[in-house]
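name: query_chain
kind: protein
chains: 1
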Amino acid sequence: EVQLVESGGGLVQPGGSLRLSCAVSGFTFDDYAMSWVRQAPGKGLEWVSGISWNGGNTNYADSVKGRFTISRDNAKNTVYLQMNSLKPEDTAVYYCNAARFGINYWGQGTQVTVSS
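structure:
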């Protein structure tokens, strides 16, 4: 059974930090590129960041560049998103995604709320 389980979300003040994790099972993790995608209240899905199968390539949306860092540990079947200097507009449900040749797997999401 394919599972992607996000964790690490919560309530944080503006300027604070959070580290999201996505632990996967049920498929060969290091065959897949991984991404983080978010959905703010009342809005559509927004791609946030992606990382190649071996971590050699990373990409970020302009809205998070310089503040967020994506990484992965293939030995632990886990992808991370370190989020620093959080802003209220980062408030969203954050989903991890695994993709390979048109196959996509999604987690259930974790809520991040940035508010004073």
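note: The chain has a mean pLDDT of 97.
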